[in-house]
Design goal:
Number of domains: 2
Radius of gyration: 20 Å
Strand content: 15-25%
Oligomer: single chain
Number of helices: 13
CATH class of the largest domain: Alpha Beta
Number of strands: 12
C-alpha cells in the first residue's frame, strides 16, 4: 500500500488525533470511525471522534459510541481539540464541505492527514489517501488499511463489530457492491468473534414502534409509481415530520422498499426539512443515480446509491425530478439490470 511507511512513522509515537466523518453519519461512517478510534487508542494515542451532527439512536449500542463528540452541540470542545491535534483522519467522505463548519476549522490547520473513503471524485486532502470506489464501504477499506499497517494487525472484537456494522449497512445486507474479497473480509471478522446473528439483530431489529407506523404511512399514503419511467417516489412533508416525531435516522432504509417492486429501476425519497429538501436516490443494476444527484440536485454518491438536496420547496423539488426523468427514459426502460 503506497505511502503506508510514512503513516507508520507518524503513528510510531503518541499523537493527538482527530477523527471526522460526514454530517448525518450512517452505519459506515460510525463503524469506520469507531474502529479506527479503538485501534488508535490501543496504540497509545489521544483520540477524539467528532461528527458535525448527531447519529441515529439505533446505533447507541456500539462500543465507544458515547465517546463521540457532536460539533453542533459541543463546538468549543471539538474546536479546541482540532487546534491542538497532530493528525486528522478523514473517514467516509472526501471533501471538507461534507463536515460544514468543522471543515472551515480543519482547513486552517497543518495536520498530517489520512483519508480513507470509497466515494467518487475525492479532493486532494490527504498526505495519505486510500480511495477505492469499487470497495463496498469505508469499513472494508479500514480493515484493508489496518492489515497493511502491520504484519500482525491487532483487530479487537469490538473493532471487528464496528467494521462489520459498517459493511453490512452500506451493502444493504450484502446486496450491493460485494466481491469475493469482501466475503473473505467478513470471514476474517467472524473468526475474530463477530456474532453475525447478534449484530444483525442489534442493527435491524432495534426500531421503535413509530418507525413501522411511519413506513406504513410512506408506502400507503406517500408513494407514487411512475410506470412510464420505471421509477418510484416517496415523499415526506413538514406535517409528516411533526405527526410522526421523525428524528435523525428514523427514515433510514425507507427508499429501498421502492426497489422491491419488480419494474421499478430507480427510487427517489424526498424529505422536506426546515430550509432544504433532502433527496435519497437508489437504483438497480447499471443505472447511475450518482449522475442525476450530481447534475441536478447538488449531490453525489455511488452508482446505485446517491443523495442530494434542493433549497426550494417540496413541490418544486418533485417537479424538477419529474422534469429530469424524460432525459433518462431510454436508460430506465431498457437498462440491462443484472
Amino acid at each position: 500500500m503506497q505511502g503506508i511507511e510514512e503513516v507508520r512513522s507518524v503513528l510510531s509515537y503518541p499523537k493527538r488525533i482527530i477523527i471526522t466523518s460526514h454530517r448525518n453519519p450512517d452505519g459506515d461512517a460510525i463503524g469506520s470511525s469507531l474502529a479506527v478510534y479503538h485501534w488508535l487508542m490501543e496504540m497509545g494515542h489521544q483520540v477524539m471522534v467528532a461528527f458535525p451532527s448527531e447519529y441515529p439512536a439505533i446505533y447507541n449500542w456500539m462500543p465507544g459510541i458515547n465517546d463521540i463528540k457532536i460539533h453542533d452541540l459541543e463546538d468549543e470542545e471539538v474546536d479546541e481539540f482540532i487546534n491542538s491535534a497532530d493528525v486528522h483522519v478523514i473517514l467516509d467522505y472526501n471533501s471538507l464541505s461534507r463536515i460544514d463548519k468543522m471543515g472551515d476549522r480543519l482547513s486552517d490547520q497543518q495536520h498530517f492527514t489520512i483519508l480513507i473513503d470509497h466515494h467518487l471524485y475525492p479532493d486532494a486532502l490527504g498526505d495519505f489517501i486510500l480511495s477505492d470506489t469499487s470497495a463496498s464501504s469505508t469499513c472494508e477499506l479500514v480493515y484493508r488499511f489496518i492489515k497493511a499497517f502491520s504484519s500482525r494487525p491487532q483487530i479487537s472484537p469490538k473493532m471487528a463489530d464496528c467494521l462489520y456494522t459498517g459493511i453490512v449497512t452500506d451493502t444493504g445486507s450484502f446486496q450491493y457492491s460485494t466481491s469475493p474479497a469482501l466475503f473473505r473480509t467478513i470471514a476474517d471478522l467472524m473468526d475474530l468473534g463477530v456474532d453475525n446473528h447478534g449484530l444483525n439483530h442489534m442493527i435491524f431489529n432495534n426500531l421503535p414502534e413509530k418507525s413501522l407506523r411511519l413506513l406504513g404511512h410512506c408506502l400507503y399514503n406517500r408513494m407514487e409509481i411512475l410506470d412510464e419511467y420505471n421509477t418510484g417516489i416517496i415523499f415526506l412533508n413538514k406535517h409528516d415530520f411533526q405527526v410522526f416525531d421523525i428524528q435523525r435516522g428514523d427514515t433510514e432504509g425507507i427508499v429501498n422498499y421502492l426497489l422491491k417492486i419488480k419494474h421499478v429501476h430507480m427510487a427517489a425519497f424526498f424529505r422536506q426539512q426546515p430550509s432544504i429538501v433532502k433527496i435519497s436516490f437508489r437504483s438497480k443494476g447499471h443505472f447511475s443515480v450518482e449522475e442525476i444527484a450530481k447534475n441536478y440536485f447538488n449531490g453525489g454518491g455511488h452508482r446505485n446509491a446517491a443523495g442530494g438536496y434542493m433549497k426550494s420547496g417540496l413541490a418544486a423539488a418533485l417537479k424538477k425530478f419529474k422534469e429530469v426523468l424524460p432525459i433518462y427514459k431510454e436508460k430506465l426502460t431498457k437498462e440491462v439490470l443484472i
